[in-house]
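Lab notebook, design round three. We kept the backbone fixed and only want residue identities now. Task for the bench partner: fill in a sequence for the structure below.
Input structure tokens:
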């Protein structure tokens, strides 16, 4: 028997779902992996039986109830996605809120945010530069990427960007579409201001003169100047 990696994964899901169903039959409340395996297996087998994506998206929400799972599991499971093989090919089945739950009850780990505004990068010196994407593909830059070292298809004053990052919330990003121009705000890196990695232009403390001189030399090679 020769199985592809995808087929092996499907067998693993099937095995996990059977174990989870046995535990459910013994009266045990299901944890998160057990619940996901049951719903995922239902979708995979449903596709094998000839059901449509639309039918599976609806029927998968009826497989388990909040009473079948441990407290907090239903609210954790906001979405289940499974790549299933249908008669006309492989499709991604997405099921939102597969287990309905009482939204009036407290959710484990839930945050209640006070009213008001959160000050972002307070007291940081902000500079504004214009950036143009001269490439033929979108470029997306994360919040803490050293902007001095971003994709060479982005054109702007790189010296001004030395030691700086985007003035946006941590974990977010800015997208530059091909041929577009955009004004963005940059702020200084804080902390020890030690930079390593990225595109390899800077290795060391940003405020070290030798490190900066070497970075400017590396920049010319990076840009092909």
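Proposed sequence:
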């Amino acid at each position: 028997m020769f199985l592809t990696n995808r087929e092996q994964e499907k067998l693993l899901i099937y095995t996990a779902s059977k174990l989870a169903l046995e535990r459910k039959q013994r009266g045990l409340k299901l944890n998160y992996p057990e619940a996901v395996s049951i719903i995922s297996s239902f979708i995979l087998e449903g596709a094998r039986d000839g059901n449509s994506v639309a039918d599976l998206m609806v029927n998968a929400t009826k497989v388990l109830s909040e009473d079948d799972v441990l407290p907090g599991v239903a609210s954790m499971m906001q979405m289940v996605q499974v790549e299933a093989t249908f008669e006309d090919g492989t499709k991604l089945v997405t099921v939102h809120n597969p287990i309905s739950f009482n939204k009036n009850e407290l959710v484990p780990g839930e945050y209640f945010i006070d009213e008001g505004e959160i000050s972002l990068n307070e007291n940081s010196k902000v500079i504004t530069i214009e950036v143009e994407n001269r490439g033929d593909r979108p470029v997306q830059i994360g919040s803490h990427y050293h902007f001095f070292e971003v994709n060479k298809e982005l054109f702007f004053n790189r010296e001004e960007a030395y030691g700086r990052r985007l003035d946006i919330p941590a974990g977010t990003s800015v997208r530059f579409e091909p041929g577009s121009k955009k004004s963005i705000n940059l702020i200084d890196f804080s902390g020890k201001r030690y930079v390593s990695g990225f595109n390899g232009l800077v290795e060391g403390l940003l405020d070290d003169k030798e490190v900066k001189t070497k970075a400017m030399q590396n920049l010319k090679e990076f840009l092909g100047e």
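Keep this in mind before ordering anything: The longest helix spans residues 5-25.
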